Amino acid sequence: MPISDEEIVETTLKLVGPDRSVAPRDIAQKLIPAEEDGKDWRSLLPRIKKLATVLAGDGQLQILRKGKPVSPAGLKGVYRIAGPDYQKVKDTANDQASDA
């Protein structure tokens, strides 16, 4: 049975969090486990990228390159996906660590 865009979005939003980013590969492998014969998780990567850019444009998540939020427009190369508050939580944790 084909994987719907809704399943991709739901899985993506479940995997990202305020203190966690994920690679597109992680989302694809969650949807198509390695033990499923005949299905290749790599085939989902273009759809994950497309949906992630839409969600980032809507403010539901962030696209990261080298750990920093970037515009989803014209996204190329290696990237990660994080929740909308990812950088704020990371900055707060860094501030607390430097105060200790």
UniProtKB/TrEMBL annotation:
A Pfam family it matches: DUF3253
Domain of life where this protein originates: Bacteria
Segment forming the signal sequence: none
Descriptive protein name: DUF3253 domain-containing protein
Annotated source species: Kordiimonas sediminis
